[in-house]
Amino acid sequence: MIKGEKIRFEIHNILFSIYKFNKTLNNPSIKKIIDKQDKENISFLYNVTLNSMRYHLHCIRIINNYIKKKLRDQEKILLISAITQIVFLNFKEYAVINCSVEIAKKLKLYPGLINATLKKIAKNKNKLKEIKIQFSDFPSWFQKETAFLSDNKKREFINNFYKEPDIHIVFKNEEKFKNFEEKLIKTSSISGFLLDKKIIKNKKSFIDGDWWVQDFSSFFPLHNYKVKNRNMRFLDACAAPGGKSFQLLSKNCEVVLNDKNQNRIKILKSNLKRLKFNSKILNKDFLKFDEKEKFDVIIIDAPCSSIGTIRRNPEIFFKNKNPNFRQLITLQENMLKKGSHLLNKDGCIIYMTCSFLKIETLDQISKFLKQNSNFILSNFKLISNPFNYSKLIKNDFMITLPNNIFDKNIDGYFAAYLNKIK
Predict the structure, then answer these.
(1) What is the pTM of this model?
(2) Is residue 212 classed exposed, middle or buried when 0-12, 13-18 and 19+ CB atoms within 10 A define those classes?
(3) Is the CA virtual torsion 153, 159, 164, 169 positive or negative?
(4) How far is CA 180 from CA 58, 186, 204, 263, 312, in A?
(5) Residues 6+ apart with CB under 8 A from 108
(6) Cβ proximity of 386 and 188 under 8 Å
(7) Is pLDDT at 355 greater than 80 in this prediction?
(8) How many Cβ atoms sit within 10 Å of the Cβ of residue 197?
(9) % of residues, the chain, pLDDT over 90
(10) CA 304, 309, 310, 315 torsion-angle sign
(11) Helical axes 39-54 vs 56-66, angle rounded to 10°
């Protein structure tokens, strides 16, 4: 077996599982493959796997320039991985080609086709780096659900969706922020983008529990929300891994943390322990909460298509199965309805999704307000801040496609404040 062949074969099998069987990198069978690798191979595996999914539409365009016949799934995935490594990651082409040919032999594909195609592509890799995709290259379900986007917004998405996400971190307080051992691009008095992407778990301040990782888009709605008094009672309905709750706990607010998923609860507890936060944790179905118990603020970060996190979860486009929108929309509606029954008068539901699709965001809020005359949409008024984040706000909502601030990438997101007036 030639050097690099084994780990590339593992990568191929992972990509095939995601594509064909709609698995994710967190699937137990895939995690088992990843966990048995050494540190160097894990880094290589994530780099190639994630970028193969991010660039797979670009790769398909390249493949179609060189091969006219219909490819089998195994062939297509093997070529996507190899082209990503040669064209977009600039790996040594001879190593990539040799390994791909050997893998083709093992899979009983056509090694001659793989060899000849990759050699032609390698010769033109500098030109192919510039290949552009069209909106029509995206999955049909995505094209349908984004018909409302302007041509400019579509171009914006095309130019951003495949780029590697940046790491945004949030501190417990301003003192922890000021004492941070490395340079940051500041996004608020307690948050910023890491310039050094080295393994964050090795940083002393991380081990000491001074901060946590949280995408700016997810951080902003709670950061922008004005806590009226410390006696307010908060419920985070889908709390894990905990970022939004940690924002409130760092302000000494009373927060009940709930999550239906037992595995996510384990992650939440681990994060709370590192950060030295104490809070009540529930492992319940939010829709079955006892309505005798009331809260002043309920955070509903609802399950959704997660399309706003496409850069961190590129399998959304790579999988051959589209999101189950009927199920998701119904769940979102039911969660809003349940939240309305658990909320005190003058309370607020903070509804969020890591999606910008109209059916999961604007349509849900419009429907909820029509059905609940005792609620109003509160103005998403920007708090006093030295930075201008107005491009993230539209018509009293926070809504953005995958975007960038300070030349750093942030997720697509939606947030609204729904106030109960009677």
Answers:
(1) 0.95
(2) buried
(3) negative
(4) 39, 12, 9, 31, 25
(5) none
(6) no
(7) yes
(8) 10
(9) 90
(10) negative
(11) 70
